[in-house]
Amino acid sequence: MPGLLRNRIVDVRVASGTSCLTLTWENGQTTRFDMAPVIAQGGVFAALADPEALAGVSVGPRGRSLVWPGDVDMDADALWFDAFPADNPFNQPVAAE
Question: Which CA distances in Å does 42 have to 49, 75, 81, 83, 85?
Fold first, then answer.
């Protein structure tokens, strides 16, 4: 499912007692994303250090994001490319001229 705007999330679950999200994608793939480093950076994600707040996650419109109450969201492409960096078109080698 490489490419921008093609990655759609159909389900998200928070692993009990952790800051890890299990994502199910439209193509059937399942990936995990650890929110701990994102939460540690602070900013809008700091509130998600509270397990109840983190558990408030849901799939955004058209599966293009994860959303939490309070206008906190994460882009589906960023999450896909974190799991599959080789699919990121911005990480592709530039052809020699």
Answer: 9, 18, 22, 22, 24
